[in-house]
Structure formats: structure tokens, C-alpha cells
Amino acid sequence: ACSRSIGVYAAICQLVNGSFEAATNAATLGYTSLNPGSTNIPGWTTTNAELTWDGGANGLTPVLIAAQGYDFLDLSGLHDAFPYGAVFQTMTTIIGQQYQVSFELGSDKYYDSYYSGTFTAPAVAVSLNGAVVFSAVNDFPTLYNYWQTWSFDFTASATHTTLMFTGANTIRIAYIGLDNVCDPDGIGSGEHQCRM
Q1: Which residues of 27-55 are buried (b: 16+ CB within 10 A; e: fewer)?
Q2: I need a labelling partner for 113 at 20 to 30 A (CA). Which of 15, 30, 142, 174 fits?
Q3: Among 137, 158, 159, which residue's Cα sits nearest to residue 148?
Q4: Are 107 and 175 in contact (CB under 8 A)?
């Protein structure tokens, strides 16, 4: 839910589980492969293609480690090929109110190069109510376990806004890591703040 507040931010939109945490999933199981339509991740629904819900216990070395908390999403899934996975959540918003969405996009130079033959920067498309409004491609030098923070603003045009992240690479890639959505204060699990 969104509420008005006094201070720097005029509105705070609560997004559930922006760091994709769960007490009994990836932190202990390593990873879980999820097909489109899954609601296993609290607050989120998967769509478009298979993806994996990853933690630090998946037995791969080196491996991408979550940017926030224990768990994260890999939109490339186990198939590591186009089309890539997507995940969405519907938030309550205030018409005419401006919000900022932030997230982290990650990959790993060694892992991606080893399994794909060449390093490819991860890319993601962000949609609001079905329309792509922002795209990001990490613009870093080839690094290990690297997360890049992205953000964009939008003005709500409805009382409910569906936020969706889709893997946007068109060639083979081993990691399209997604974590820390709308969590500027590093809250971790629970409700995350998409702010104005």
C-alpha cells in the first residue's frame, strides 16, 4: 500500500520482498527453477520463460552472490538462452504521484565466459502496466560478482501499477541477476520502498 508522509518523500509505495528472500529457499537449497506462472517467490509471479531463484549454496565456484540479503533471481534460468524469464508484482499507487524505482543488475565475468564462451553484459527491460518504460545494460568492465544499481522515475497513471522485469538479452548469457528492487535503505526482506 502507499501512504502520504511528511518530509522529503511525499509518497512511499510498499513493494513486497524486493530482495526475493524466503526462509526456506535459496539460502539452503542453492537454487530453484521456476516456470512461468509460479507464485513461489513471496510477492512475485514469474512469466515469459523459466528462471531460477538463487542463493549462495548452489555449489558453483565462482558464483554470483546476492547484492542484498541471501537470495536473488537469475532471469536467464537454467536454459541460458532467449527468451529469458520475467517477474512481476502489482503495487498500489497514487494517480499523479511520482515514484522512483531502483534495482540491481548483476553478472559474473568468469562464470558467464566459461559457460557461454564469451562475456556478455546482462540486460533487462522494465515494464509498467505492460509497456516498457526503462531498459538497462550493465556498462562495466568485465568483473567478477558485479552488481550495478539502476533507477528511473515514473508518474502513476492508475491506482494499481504492475512492475515487471524481463531479461532483455537476445544472445546466450549465463547470468541476468536481479536483486534489491525498490530498496534504497537496504531493508532486505519484507516491504521495500519505491519512493518519490
Answers
A1: beebbbebeeebeebebbbbbbbbbbbbb
A2: 30
A3: 137
A4: yes
Place of cell 528511473: 152
Rounded to whole angstroms, the Cα distance separating 98 from 167 reads 25
Tens digit of each residue's pLDDT (9 = 90 or more) over 63-104: 788 888 888 999 999 998 899 999 999 999 999 999 999 999
> Would you say 109 and 28 are in contact if contact means Cβ atoms under 8 Å apart?
no
Structural contact between residues 102 and 18, judged by C-beta atoms closer than 8 angstroms: no
Match 533487462 to its residue by C-alpha cell.
124
Instruction: Round to whole Å and give the CA distance between 70 and 106.
Output: 14
Give Cα separations from 1 to 10, 21, 160 (angstroms).
14, 20, 10
Q: What digits encode the pLDDT tens for the residues 109-165?
A: 766 665 556 678 899 999 999 999 999 999 765 667 889 999 999 999 999 999 999
Q: Where are the alpha helices (DSSP H) in 71-192?
A: 109-116
> Strand 45-47 and strand 98-107: pairing?
unpaired
Exposed e or buried b for every residue in 130-148, given b needs 16+ CB within 10 A? eeeebebebeeeeeebbbb
What is the DSSP annotation of 58-74? S--SS----SSSS-EEE
pTM of the predicted model, to two decimals? 0.85
CA distance 20 to 27: 11
